[in-house]
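Is uridine-diphosphate-N-acetylglucosamine placement plausible here? Inputs below.
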Amino acid sequence: MAIALIILAAGQGTRMNSDQPKVLHKVAGAPLLIHAMRAGAAVAPDRTIIVAGHGAEAVAKAASDWDEGAEVVIQAEQKGTGHAVAQALPALKGFEGKIIVLYGDTPFIRAETIEKMAENPADVVVLGFTADPATRYGRLVADGPDLARIVEYKDATEAERAITLMNSGVLCADAALLAELVAGLGNDNASGEYYLTDVIGAAVAKGRRASVVTCDEAETLGVNSRADLARAEAAFQARARAEAMADGVTLTAPETVFFAFDTVVGRDTIIGPNVVFGPGATVESGCEIKPFCHLEGCHLSTGAQVGPFARLRPGAELAEDVHVGNFVEIKNAILDQGVKVGHLTYLGDAHVGEGANIGAGTVTCNYDGFSKHRTEIGARAFIGSDTMLVAPVRIGAGAITGSGSVITRDVPDEALAIARPPQLNKDGLAPKLFEMYKAAKEKRRKEAK
Ligand code: UD1
Ligand code: CA
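Reply from A.M.:
I modeled the complex. Tokens:
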């Protein structure tokens, strides 16, 4: 059966106190909107329509960066959730199948939950959850096992406010029926808004069946403030850590490890304390990430060891058994099997061949102020400590660079390159220098008096 998603994301999110639209604030490195789109993607929707309003241009860009096929419609004025859905329906004219409505600011709806809703045979299905009656969610008014209507908190009677079955806002309905029901919505209520929730009562009045699927309150966690955003981050991290451990990853101090929305870590990998993942990191099995590393847009093959205090940036590609040590930064560089980069090094826009050894303090000087240039280091090459590799430059296989060299020209295979001033030894000069320094210090001390 065909499925279309409508994701409501027009609201400003006043309580975020931000210049940015609410749905673009990030949890685990991805905008809230992308979390909602990812959840919806689980039912393989044929169409995805985002309803944007505040910051529509930026919202549209984020949506299409994630999914080129996502369509964006504009709701210029926010007149309620029913009005928002109405803006999306013309784009779905003639669409046959089910429509699922999600909120862009509700990131944690599980794929299984959305699937369950799509499979439910009722004409309209609402996602509900049980919560404390002190909360101000819309109330699901039941009629036996079915649903009679939804009443917004503001419009509810005392008796209705005592109901503990709440509306999450997620809804699934036949496309043609939803269009008919939304067209009939009015705004005669406490907020003067077109409530999407009114479609339930309207469907039942037409003799259609409305039903509820329930989920845990944590799944429907919505973000309205910075405090909510922090809570959402904490909830995401707690779940990601638990999942990683269940998948066979050792976390020495789980509460200090931060994953991104798309981090992948293989079995028997060990992650030490205070490791932070940005988007796009994949770590295969049997790796070790020592304390205080930051990894983003990178890939570690089996047996790679990184850190402590290493930074892997986008395009860092570590083959099997590569060792990257402390205070090493790697960006857009491929390190072939068994490469060792132990200490205090920057490798950017580079390819390092199998088994090469990069000495402490090596720098690929990849940027001339205007353009980036590449460095090629051949297999089994030995780069002496404190070598500056002024790119573009190529070091041959099995070659050596002398410590402290500034390499500006290519080095042939198996050559030794030394590019530093030759050493000068002056016999017996050291004690004389010490005397001079001592006298100079004494003179300064007397003058200061
Ligand atoms: C809505 C539900 C309520 C439910 C609650 C769950 C209605 C009338 N009420 O209330 O029953 O318990 O969500 O969180 O649906 N939006 C637009 N355009 C608009 C209005 C809203 O795009 O004109 C978007 C918002 O950006 C947001 C979502 O729809 O992502 C929900 O809107 P919000 O105003 O937060 O609804 P609630 O009043 O919380
Ligand atoms: Ca809300």
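Short version: The pocket of calcium ion (ligand 2) is lined by residues 222, 224 (CB under 6 Å).
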